[in-house]
């Protein structure tokens, strides 16, 4: 009803980043989210979200984001224009990325970069329109991650 935001997370995400600091515009990101790994700190509600009325993880086990191009490069901020495939529907979604920096990680001895990213989209754009407006349509994605160089 708009009184607050509900927060959840996905515990299983596999992502690859092709990144060159000297040519950020050529960067590419692909993230595959295991939708059954949804975690809302309530197993009963998580099971409801996995069900056919919401994420339908039996039929659509993954959501995938792939960059199409990199736009709006400004310092450490970059927009990854891409395509999100969710519930069998693919729509354009832009991921706003802030690169926190990179260095050799003293624990792994591998070059590591870290970033924070965010995006907004409407779940109804992907066919998930049940209970609108009682339950909000806008989904806010927040990502905090690190990538290690191979």
Structural write-up:
By secondary structure, this protein is mainly β. The chain has one helix and nine strands, in the order E-E-E-E-H-E-E-E-E-E. The strands form two sheets. The chain has a seven-stranded antiparallel β-sheet with strand order 2-3-5-6-7-8-9, with no helix packed on it. The protein is globular.
Largest sheet: 7 strands, antiparallel
The fraction of residues in strands falls at: over 45%
- Overall geometric form: globular
The tally of beta strands, per DSSP, is 9
Q: Report strand order across the widest sheet.
A: 2-3-5-6-7-8-9
* Radius of gyration, in angstroms, nearest whole number: 17 Å
Secondary structure category: mainly beta
Helix content, binned percent: under 10%
- In the CATH scheme, the class would be Mainly Beta
**Number of discrete domains:** 1
């Amino acid at each position: 009803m708009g009184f607050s935001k509900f927060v959840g997370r996905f515990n299983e995400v596999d992502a690859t980043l092709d990144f060159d600091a000297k040519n950020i515009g050529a960067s590419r990101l692909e993230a595959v989210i295991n939708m059954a790994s949804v975690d809302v700190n309530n197993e009963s509600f998580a099971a409801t979200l996995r069900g056919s009325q919401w994420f339908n993880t039996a039929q659509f086990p993954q959501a995938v984001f792939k960059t199409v191009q990199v736009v709006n490069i400004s310092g450490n901020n970059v927009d990854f224009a891409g395509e999100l495939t969710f519930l069998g529907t693919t729509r354009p979604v832009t991921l706003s990325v802030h690169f926190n920096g990179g260095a050799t990680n003293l624990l792994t001895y591998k070059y590591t970069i870290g970033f924070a990213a965010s995006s907004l989209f409407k779940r109804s754009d992907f066919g998930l329109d049940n209970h609108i407006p009682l339950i909000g349509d806008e989904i806010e994605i927040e990502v905090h991650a690190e990538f290690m160089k191979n």
